[in-house]
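Page 42, continued from yesterday. The earlier attempt failed because a stray header line got pasted into the input along with the sequence. Redoing it now with the clean sequence only.
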Amino acid sequence: MEFYNLLEKIVHHNETHAKWLNTLSFMENAGARKISACEHPSKVDLIQLKHAAEEHRHAYYLKKQIGKISSESCKTYEKDELLAAVATRQYLHSLDIKACKYLQKTFALAKEELKYAAYLFVTYAIEVRADKLYPVYQEILSKTSSKVMVKSIILEEEGHLEEMISQLNEFSDDWKTHAETVLAIEKDLHEQWIKAISKEVLEVHYA
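This time it went through. Structure tokens are written below.
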């Protein structure tokens, strides 16, 4: 299903919409935890701390938005409160593992260096995706006069992307070549994720 049409179907069904928000919240929270897990024991810069804090805040903000749809829905991240729970839980984890394998093979990095490289490239790929996903979602929210809003997240994600590019420029002159490989990995995983969500949404829509 085309992404715009999928989101339209999601937004028009309150229970599914609540699960979508919860799924995005889970992803933002998982991203924040991965950023923190990639921190060096002592050499942690301000941008990395800022990213982790803002991703956690996005997770909180999205969770709070669920209350505009239903005060009783999606209290946790249990599988029945997420869309395509298995694919959702695997998405970032698989991206991290596959990106690490590629980066290790390419740069032959020590453990802490690999963690930092993974933070840079994986976060970059996720920010590129967020830069596409949230504006489409907000367009549909605005069109349907939904009380839910993600405009504040869009602005922060744009800032994150600029910061990641700046950090990657410092990491390697040839970072764009390697980023293309990681983006291709992410694209494949994203397509699997959307396909799993589409299947679930269609089952609800035609039940």
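Notes: The two ends are 17 Å apart (CA to CA).
Reminder to self: strip header lines before submitting.
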